[in-house]
Amino acid sequence: MKKVLHPQAICIDATLGNGKDAQYFLAQKVKKVYAFEIQEDVIEKTEKAISNPRLFVYHKGHEHMDIIHEPVDAILFNFGYCPHGNPEITTLPDTSLEAVQKGIQLLREKGRMALVFYAHKQANQEQKAIENYVSTLTSCDVCKVQMMNHDAPYLIEIEKK
């Protein structure tokens, strides 16, 4: 990701949660970070912790990221549930796939997307739907990084050609 993070970069934290990805983007001195989160209490806590005028938080699911109307340099997703939050509130296969599809459309040429998958109750369906979609992309390079000898979160990296 660092390669596409510059002072004019536009970034999306597609799953705000505790704000670690948003903070990472902001620490790179990017121009703007848009973030999406469905849990109001999580938003309030995270906005207090970060409080940065370059952060724009939407109380909406990531499937609504097409409200952004400018090319994006970087998008980060963490699929699962908010750490230290309610594990019953998770990302969902249909809305996550829709968000990834919209994210691909928003990425500028050479823009990058990271998809991090964690275990949760609908993880297998979500992973399968997203992997089936990204494996068909011809406008992007797609790389999967996964541990082979034990269960662990894994990563799919995408760069738009």
Structure description:
There is one protein chain. With 161 residues, this protein is α/β, with parallel strands linked by helices. The protein contains four helices and seven strands, in the order E-H-E-H-E-E-H-E-H-E-E. A seven-stranded mixed sheet has the order 3-2-1-4-5-7-6, with helices on both faces. Helix 3 (93-106) packs parallel to helix 4 (123-134). The radius of gyration is 15 Å and the shape is globular. The two termini are 15 Å apart.
Describe the structure concisely for a colleague.
With 161 residues, the chain is of the alpha/beta class. The chain has four helices and seven strands.
Number of strands: 7
Q: What is the number of helical segments per DSSP (H or I, 4+ residues)?
A: 4
End-to-end separation in angstroms reads: 15 Å
Strand order of the largest sheet: 3-2-1-4-5-7-6
Relative strand content? 25-35%
Any low-confidence stretches, pLDDT <50, length ≥5? none
pLDDT averaged over residues: 96
Structural class: alpha/beta
Shape assignment:
globular
Report helical residue fraction. Answer: 25-40%
Order of helices and strands: EHEHEEHEHEE
Q: Characterize the largest beta sheet: strand count, sense, and whether it forms a barrel.
A: 7 strands, mixed
Cα radius of gyration in angstroms? 15 Å
How is the topology of this model organized?
Elements: E1 10-13, H1 20-27, E2 32-36, H2 40-50, E3 55-58, E4 72-79, H3 93-106, E5 107-117, H4 123-134, E6 140-145, E7 154-160
Parallel strand pairs: 1-2, 1-4, 2-3, 4-5
Antiparallel strand pairs: 5-7, 6-7
